[in-house]
């Protein structure tokens, strides 16, 4: 298949592209605006492959997207381009409205115009796969409750509200115009090449530098953690085998309290990086509790039974195996981390991640 991926230089998008090029025979066009979170160095292992092409463009720019679709003639579009950092959305929601809502609308309109030019057999097999988040569902209250594909939407942050809006647009374009769409909502991803402002890489790198490990509130917030390479396999399953109009929740079956995630990282670093910064006796001594994030959801947890029953996907990694692989990767790729932290991956200094850091 010819697959166009938006946001392919981001964390999940780059994992998906690496999977498609290294493990399948599909052809990929990566359309990415290259905001701060887009890093082409995450694709260095495949960027010279003849089945891979990169185009720098903004999904809001509909004429440019029209031209790309007409030239590349994709058989599927996998839409991952999004602003995705909750703290950033609280500080500046406008970018999230523009990219996640207006951008999705523009991409849907460009896709619809392209899809209508296809012959009937190609129309029937074409797919538009929208990749979203479990945060659109809001907060779980019962200790045993799980998000299902029919859970009502109740987003809490500007980020999750903008993703909820984009989900609704995608479903409306199928209902109104017949566009063959698929949706997936995933839990928290982690793994190699994760931008260092996110929780797990931030804790790893702060610990190695002897900096505080900030934890929101009391750290009792629960998240379901999904190893990014497991997610990439699931996404390919959905776009190639999923039923049109269906939604599939993708989770790792790995519920963890934020404070336990931080402590687990500290324990792994004790083993894998025993030579600590000056003045640090134990990595866990760096844990620092700070004021909670506004509107912070307490618990997310995914019921991923549907994708297992219907498509045969289950995660390969437990949280323990995935976290160990992740910590080892960061220890072995500190140059990649430093280039993100100092901005040189973009050819300019951003300085302290644009003064934004995510915490647990």
UniProtKB/TrEMBL annotation:
Record keywords: Lyase, NAD
EC number(s) stated in the UniProt entry for this protein: 4.2.1.46
Reaction equation(s) it catalyzes: dTDP-alpha-D-glucose = dTDP-4-dehydro-6-deoxy-alpha-D-glucose + H2O
Alphabetical list of InterPro entries matching this protein: dTDP_Gluc_deHydtase, NAD(P)-bd_dom, NAD(P)-bd_dom_sf, Sc_DH/Rdtase_CS
CDD domains the record matches: dTDP_GD_SDR_e
Domain NAD(P)-binding positions: 4-326
GO MF term set: dTDP-glucose 4,6-dehydratase activity
Family from the record: Belongs to the NAD(P)-dependent epimerase/dehydratase family. dTDP-glucose dehydratase subfamily.
Protein's recorded name: dTDP-glucose 4,6-dehydratase
């Amino acid at each position: 298949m010819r697959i166009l991926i938006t946001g392919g230089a981001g964390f999940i998008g780059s994992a998906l592209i690496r999977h498609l090029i290294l493990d399948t025979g599909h052809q990929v066009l990566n359309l990415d605006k290259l905001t701060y979170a887009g890093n082409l160095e995450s694709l260095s292992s495949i960027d010279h492959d003849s089945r891979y092409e990169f185009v720098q463009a903004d999904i809001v720019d509909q004429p440019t997207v029209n031209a790309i679709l007409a030239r590349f003639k994709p058989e599927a579009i996998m839409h991952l381009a999004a602003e995705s950092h909750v703290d950033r959305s609280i500080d500046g929601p406008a970018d999230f409205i523009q990219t996640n809502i207006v951008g999705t609308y523009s991409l849907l309109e460009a896709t619809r115009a392209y899809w209508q030019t296809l012959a009937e057999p190609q129309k029937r097999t074409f797919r538009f796969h929208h990749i979203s988040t479990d945060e659109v569902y809001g907060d779980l209250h019962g200790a045993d409750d799980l998000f299902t594909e029919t859970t009502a939407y109740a987003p809490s942050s500007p980020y999750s509200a903008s993703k909820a809006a984009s989900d609704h647009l995608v479903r409306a374009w199928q209902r109104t115009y017949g566009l063959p769409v698929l949706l997936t909502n995933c839990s928290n991803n982690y793994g190699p090449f994760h931008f260092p402002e996110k929780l797990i890489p931030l804790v790893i790198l702060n610990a190695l530098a002897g900096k505080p490990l900030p934890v929101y509130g009391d750290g009792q917030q629960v998240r379901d953690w999904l190893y990014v390479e497991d997610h990439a396999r699931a996404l390919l399953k959905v776009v190639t085998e999923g039923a049109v109009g269906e939604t599939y929740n993708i989770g790792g079956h790995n519920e963890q309290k934020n404070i336990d995630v931080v402590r687990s990282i500290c324990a792994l670093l004790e083993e894998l990086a025993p030579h600590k910064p000056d003045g640090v006796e134990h990595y866990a001594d760096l844990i620092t509790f700070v004021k909670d994030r506004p509107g912070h959801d307490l618990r997310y947890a995914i019921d991923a039974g549907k994708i297992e029953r219907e498509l045969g996907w289950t995660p390969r990694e437990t949280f323990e195996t995935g976290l160990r692989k992740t910590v080892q990767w960061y220890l072995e790729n500190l140059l990649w981390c430093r280039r993100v932290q100092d901005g040189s991956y973009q050819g300019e200094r951003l300085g302290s991640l644009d003064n934004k850091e995510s915490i647990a």
